[in-house]
Amino acid sequence: MGGIGKTTLANAVFEEVSPKFECRLFLKDVSEKIKKQGDESLRNELLSKLLDEKEICIDTPSISYPYQDRLNNIKVLLVLDDVSDPDQIDFMGVKYFGPGSKIIVTSRDRQVLRNGRANHIHEVKKLNKNDSLQLFSTFAFKLLNPVVDFQDLSCKFVEYAQGSPLALKVLGSNLYTKSKNEWESEVDKLKQYVEPKISQILKSSLDGLGELEKNIFLDVACFFKGEKMDIVEKILSNYYMGAMCGIRNLVDKCLLDSIDGYHISMHDMLEEIGKDIVRQKCKENPGKCSRLWFPKDVDQVLRFNQGTVSIEGIKLDMSQIDKLQLCPSVFENMFNLRYIYFYKPEIEKEDWNPKLLANEVDSVSLPNKLRYLCWDYFPFKSLSSFNSKNLIVLKLRDGKMEKLWNEDDHMDLVNLREINVSNCKNLRKIPNLSGAINLELLHCSNCESLVQFWDENNLMDLVNLREINVSNCKNLRKMPNLSGAINLELLNCFKCRSLVQLGNEDDHMDLVNLRKIDVSCCENLRKIPSLLGAINLEFLGCYECESLVELPCLYHLASLHQYNLRLNGCYSLNKFPQVPSHFCRLNLSSTKIKEVPDSIELLHKLQRLSLRKSKVKKVSINISKLEFLHQLDLSDCPMIKFPEIPRSLTELNLSGTQIEEVSLPFDSLYNLRNLNMRSSRVKNVSIKLESLRQLDLSDCPMIQFPEIPGSLTELDLSGTQIEEVSLPFDSLCNLRNLNMRSSSVKNVSIKLESLRQLDLSDCPMIQFPEIPGSLTELNLSGTQIEKVSLPFDSLCNLRNLNMRGSKVKDVSIKLESLRKLNLSNCPMIKFPEIPRSLIELNLSGTQIEEVSLPSDSLCNLQDLDMSGSAVKTVSIKLESLRYLDLSGCPMVEFPEFPRIPWDSNPRRSMNTAHPSSRYRRCVRKGHSSDTPGYVGDMLEYVKKK
């Protein structure tokens, strides 16, 4: 039931418990927002707020892994208000939230909550008489109890409201400050209904509205619910005298509301009542309705040219009608038409076919009273010349226009506030807007044919312009002079790949209100104008500007955030930029910068500096003065000498450099914990830093084990020429992870009790290595070892053993600690002798022909992969098994195995019969709705059906 208080109750719980959660969000009107903006857009908005990251854009059905991982680390409180489909809950990614997270969902349908797997369902009951009286009094008297003289009348209204909080609020607000006679008159109105419904009670409250308030209420109900408050106020104020006051009165009467302070809203029940009031007046003849929104009515009026002077507004969900050829005179009889709102719901697929078509004409005649023109997929080549002085909003997204209007039309645009022509693929030019002195928003993103704006000699002072968005206009070569747009806050030129310059060569962007400039991926942009006057700039996106040679001085921009200066991939940038001294991070990777200058000392708060893949050969000694610098990345730079760096460093990356020798005595870089020299020229290493924890010397031309400190916990020597490793008990006593993958190691003797992970994969070893019992993970894949024999008392902590692609033929392992064993692609011909403790076993690609596992063997095994092996006969009776892969095996009979319930873990892929396949063949990551939970290969005789 609507208006019963579900949202209010959810909000009360949210406010009560939210301090216990690090991330909390109340998402109102989920179904309505998904219908308007699409589920992906709403999910991106949700993720941006939860992860505190701007402009997250995920356009796939599932959330990508990095975001999953981040969500899994936060405790979230989320309210999803007014959900109509259980899939909406899953789509928001709630299953990835961290431990302790709580999701509260409100819905009018109990089944939605059941199907959404709600742990607890609470039905919101109607308010009892005492609570109803208290709520009513709060709005009718601004007191907790009714005034004595109004006690009986209050009880009558409470009785009529039937415990509905919405009805109590509306009735109470409507009666506030009214006389007793007026109260009695309102009671008489309700007496006409024998048993009044909530809708009838609410409707009676509307009868007392003045003409102005009633018209505003009906306009919002039919057209503007959910739209931006400031735009709606301007549209209504342009037509109704005193509209702002009328809106405030409706808010005071609880008939209108505001979502997040920016969007106008009203309760669903009130919306339906408003629409019903309009429709009841012209049931039989929609052409005489003042407002049209019902698709069938709109279709009838447009298709049969039934428009009349009565029509003031039309709103149409174009997905709800069949294709319709429009004649150019379709609006000619609608002299009073103020609003045209033809839209495609965001949930519709991208390759959507337009429904309203031009009838072989270039333009359509529009009425002069038009205030709001929003027409997705506008089918005409241009707007006709019409009296546009009343026009406030012009939105023609995905339209077919080649031009908006002719340059000599002299359009009167004095009231125009917003232009949105995004995705108009044929639009070549934005015309003269000199008359649009009140224009605030100009959105032209994805206009692929757009080449230019207005002529240069038409220098316009668009003093109210706040946003310009021309992102993805790939043929736009030049932006106009914007020096007169003194209130500009946003300039978005992202991916304008042909853009050569912003304004003229000597232009200055002295725009004090400018907050954001994004010219990222503008491949041909060579220069950014002076920003001396843009003292409030917060964001400057320049990454992957391949032709950008230098930046203007940024040192004075105190508001510029370090995370919002993006310069990586500016391949032509050859000068170290002058950035604000408050920066803690700076990324200049993949630039042409050759030197870190002396002025680096000015960045006294710098903590992280990346010059990866730049041309840096020299680093100023002044960098050693940066006492807060912790991370320095000079990887893949053409350096030949170890740089002078501050002792504050904890992480240093010199991988891929030309440095040949590293010598670090005890008293140098005593805070360094992580040193990466991967793929450098280092041959000799002498490091005695007791602070060092991680050292990467992989793919270096070393032939001897390096001289390194005992403090190390991780060491990577993969790909080196070292042939022998001998580490007694008292050496490297803290080492936990040693990687020698693809090195030249043949002999290994390691007795370090601290060691947990050892990788010797693809080494030319022929014998099982001598290793400590402390190991938990061992990788010997790709080695020449032919036999593995591990009795009970050896390697008693080993949990994961990987022998993939080795020469192993005989296996006898009795380690009760072992959980995972990979023997895939080994030349084995019989099932190995392995411990009962195993959970995962991979024997894919082996020569094993028969598998027989009775119920008392391998009683913990959950995953068995035999894909691509020689298995012909299978008999498995393990009740613990959850995943079995026999794809690609030469089987001719259906295997014998237990009933396996579906594994709900999303990381697991299943081999299952796909019900829609004619041949019912085996596919990955499929779920069958008509099988009882079996997995495995399908038989040949099944394939022949």
TrEMBL record:
Spans of biased composition, class Basic residues? 917-926
What are the boundaries of the region Disordered? 905-928
Segments crossing the lipid bilayer: none
Q: Name one GO biological process term.
A: defense response
Gene3D superfamilies, per the entry: Helical domain of apoptotic protease-activating factors, P-loop containing nucleotide triphosphate hydrolases, Ribonuclease Inhibitor
NB-ARC domain spans which residues?
A: 1-142
Which InterPro entries does the record cross-reference, listed alphabetically? Answer: Apaf_helical, Disease_R_plants, LRR_dom_sf, NB-ARC, P-loop_NTPase, WH_DNA-bd_sf, WHD_ROQ1-like
What's this protein's name?
Answer: Uncharacterized protein
| Species of the source | Gossypium tomentosum (Hawaiian cotton)
Its lineage reads:
Eukaryota, Viridiplantae, Streptophyta, Embryophyta, Tracheophyta
